[in-house]
Write a structure and sequence with these properties.
With 264 residues, this protein is mainly alpha-helical. It is 54% helix and 8% strand. The chain contains eleven helices and three strands; from the N terminus they run H-H-H-H-H-H-H-H-E-E-E-H-H-H. Helix 3 packs across helix 6, helix 4 (77-99) packs antiparallel against helix 6 (122-143) and helix 7 (155-165) packs across helix 11 (248-263).
Length: 264
């Protein structure tokens, strides 16, 4: 009995101290803990995010723009937690570790690093390709999803999809096919090519469209960790369900940014 009372007292004391500490040291997001010098980012769009991160000298894990369970039932909260807090966080950590070996690279955006990959020091080239790609891909991935999906594309991207693929359903089928046919791990993409045309493609592992000089407009992660807890081996079901959470406003913004980049 005495042991139980002691345990309860200690537990209550620890809990009280923890609550006081949290009240004095609020943590707004996981990104804060991973940002150099305590700099917090608001991440209005992934292109802005990745440039801003380079300016503080260290890449950071962006917070999700919604709750972990916000995309359910299409993507479950457990998958989102592991995907963001473990997988994406790992890419950020490994990327920072690689860049720390070559201080002259600090200040470069992840897009710049990937586009200039062949000129990076050989000892970190593969690490930047894999983890820089993983960071860029996932930063975009979180932002092009929303619990308040508009259903179908509108605006400039809708017109461009219709002009290129005939209609939205044809595009969606082609995009899903790219995801289904990607053997093993990888991504399905809609990209704006360096020639200014829309194209559906896929990449292996964490390879980014930046490596080929293209601009990612939207992409779906077909690594098993993105869907296996909920869909097991039914990748096709996951690909079909994913359209229910696409943030077409963000896709439109990325499309316009890519067009502006081509003009500059």
């Amino acid at each position: 009995m005495q042991i139980k009372r002691s345990f309860r007292f200690i537990f209550s004391l620890v809990l009280a101290i923890s609550l006081v500490w949290v009240s004095l040291n609020p943590v707004n997001s996981l990104a804060t803990a991973l940002t150099s010098q305590g700099v917090q980012n608001t991440f209005p769009s992934s292109e802005t995010n990745l440039v801003a991160q380079a300016k503080v000298g260290e890449f950071v894990l962006p917070p999700l723009p919604y709750a972990y369970d916000a995309l359910a039932p299409y993507i479950d909260s457990e998958t989102m937690t592991f995907h963001h807090d473990k997988h994406h966080a790992g890419y950020v950590k490994n990327l920072n570790g690689a860049i720390s070996k070559h201080p002259e690279l600090k200040g470069k955006s992840v897009e710049a690093l990937l586009r200039d990959l062949s000129n990076l020091p050989e000892d970190i080239r593969s690490t930047v390709r894999n983890n820089g790609g993983g960071h860029a891909n996932h930063t975009m991935f979180w932002e092009i999803m929303t619990p308040d999906s508009q259903g179908q594309p509108t605006g400039p991207i809708a017109s461009a999809i219709n002009d290129t693929f005939g209609d939205f359903e044809t595009f969606k089928q082609e995009f899903n096919t790219a995801g289904k046919k990607r053997f093993g791990s990888g991504w399905a993409w809609l990209v704006l090519t360096k020639d200014g045309t829309l194209e559906v493609t896929s990449t292996a592992n964490q390879d980014s469209p930046f490596l080929d000089g293209n601009y990612p407009i939207m992409g779906n992660d077909v690594w098993e960790h993105a869907y296996y807890l909920n869909y097991q081996n039914r990748r096709g079901d996951y690909l079909d369900a994913w359209w229910s959470v696409v943030n077409w406003e963000e896709v439109n913004q990325r499309f316009e940014q890519a067009q502006d980049s081509l003009k500059s």
